[in-house]
Amino acid sequence: MSIFDQLDQGITTRSISETNAVATALAQALPIDSILTLRGDLGAGKTTFVKALALALGVKGPIKSPTYNIFSIHQGTIQLVHMDAYRLSGPNAIEELMLEEFLQSPYCLVIEWPERIIDWLPSATIALSLSIQDEHTRLIQTDLTTNFQQSE
Fold it and tell me: 3-142, what's its fold?
């Protein structure tokens, strides 16, 4: 079963290492020039997930949420662009940031708080939801609340 099929069904993790394993498996299956969205409440593990994804993509150095910078760029085996869209006012803000000018193929653009820019996202976006089940348990699954289809 592919990681995408598993995410469609939902993957329950009970530790950071299990969450890291999901991110690593996804990193290995990502198509070239991917856009990945992570929806979830504070503390759901979005940044933890991005850290593991970055490590799997060969990024060296610290990864932290780019809340005040809006996005940060990291070089690994592919370029990882990590965006926190929380402070954006809508899709027009993306144009003002000139984000597309910074994307260099091959890349993976990971967007936290994608609901702020949902109208900007292309249909090939891989949309995930991370939710807190209890203090030690998270559910990672395909985000079915979006209006676009997951790419394969």
Answer: Rossmann fold (3.40.50)
Give the closest residue to 57 by CA, choosing from 96, 92, 35, 29: 29
Tokens of 120: 């900007």
pTM for this predicted structure: 0.86
Q: How far apart are the C-alpha atoms of 112 and 104, rounded to whole Å?
A: 20
Give dist(CA 27, CA 67) in Å, integer: 23
Which positions ≥6 away from 81 have C-beta within 8 Å?
Answer: 71, 72, 73, 74, 99, 102, 103, 107, 108, 109, 110
What string of pLDDT tens digits covers the 152 residues of the chain? 999 999 999 999 999 999 999 999 999 999 999 999 999 988 888 989 999 999 999 998 888 777 667 788 899 999 999 988 888 876 677 777 766 777 778 999 999 988 888 888 888 899 999 999 998 899 999 997 665 443 33
Calculate ∠ Cα 107-112-118, nearest 5°: 90
Return the domain boundaries, the chain.
3-142
